Amino acid sequence: MARRRQLYEGKAKILFEGPEPGTLVQYFKDDATAFNAKKKGTITGKGVLNNRISEYLMTRLAEIGIPTHFIRRLNMREQLIREVEIIPLEVVVRNVAAGSLSQRLGITEGQRLPRSIIEYYYKNDALNDPMVAEEHITCFGWASTQDLDDIVALTLRVNDFLTGLFLGVGITLVDFKLEFGRLWENEEMRIVLADEISPDNCRLWDAKTGEKMDKDRFRRDLGKVEEGYQEVARRLGILPEAGPRDMTGPEVMQ
Ligand SMILES: Nc1ncnc2c1ncn2[C@@H]1O[C@H](COP(=O)(O)OP(=O)(O)OP(=O)(O)O)[C@@H](O)[C@H]1O
Ligand SMILES: [Mg+2]
After folding, report:
1. What spacing in Å lies between the alpha carbon of 103 and ligand 1's midpoint?
2. Could you give the number of structural domains in the chain?
3. Where does the SAICAR synthetase/ADE2 N-terminal domain lie (predicted)?
4. What is the predicted pLDDT for the residue at 239?
5. Strands 39-42, 89-96: pairing kind
6. Pocket residue to mutate for ligand 1, from 80, 86, 127, most atoms within 8 A of Cβ
């Protein structure tokens, strides 16, 4: 018997209908993909850790006034979120050169950027999520100029806050991807932070050694992938004592 209706299955998460209108349940899988799903695998315990890490970061961001879709974590792999109209953009922030920036422009990986860069990618798997400019975004109506102003302001605040938060636990926030959505309340529209913030969509390097603690360990076959995600959770102080595992019963975790 189906417990509830599944609305969407993505590469890393499944969306279910939530208990009340306007809510969804976001289920975090262990599935990992890279290079637009050309590389596929499993990272054991990733879903549990990403659920917890994203909960933690979204909660901290809400405390400084960033509107987010996050309502509460339901269990080890699920969280209750507000349903939003996803803006079809991946908003990428870069503080240090890495990944496609280094490849496309020949900038040495690890070079600190003189100022943070925001890039936009059009969320479209069939087109390989191409990079786009503001002009494309407004021309094709993916977001208005006002939406983009809000998105940039929120993104810069998120970057400043998370850079400090991670540095406090000995991690350099090299770059990360955000998604935003439109939330309608009493005929008024607000842009809110959606999706997830986790080592799946952040580059996180040990501040001293430069060791990678994110999905690049999977992308580049560096080994110790699970350990990287766990170490991020451990440093944030949110790793459950017994380590990540599936449980059905309630458990108090700080
Ligand atoms: N609050 C929300 N309301 C509605 N949709 C959301 C919300 N938060 C995230 N999403 C969407 O839910 C999906 C999460 O699944 P997942 O991250 O696995 O997708 P994906 O395989 O990365 O595919 P996509 O290219 O659509 O992101 C994404 O499409 C994301 O945009
Ligand atoms: Mg996704």
Report:
1. 27
2. 2
3. 6-235
4. 86
5. unpaired
6. 86
Query: What is the tens place of the pLDDT at every residue in 15-34?
Result: 999 999 999 999 999 999 99
Token couple for 130: 């191409």
Q: What is the tens place of the pLDDT at every residue in 53-78?
A: 999 999 999 999 999 999 999 999 99
Q: Ligand 1: distance of its center to the CA of 195 in Å?
A: 6
In the reported structure, the alpha carbon of residue 89 is separated from the centroid of ligand 2 by a whole-number distance in angstroms of 11
What are the residues whose beta carbons fall under 8 Å from the beta carbon of 48, sequence distance 6 or more?
Answer: 28, 76, 77, 244, 245, 246
Query: What's the pTM value of the predicted model, to 2 decimals?
Result: 0.94
**Same domain for 131 and 37:** no
Query: Domain limits at 136?
Result: 85-206
Mean pLDDT, range 91-110, rounded to an integer: 98
CB-based pocket (< 6 A), ligand 1: 8, 10-13, 15, 24, 69, 81-84, 86, 123, 125, 179, 181, 194-195
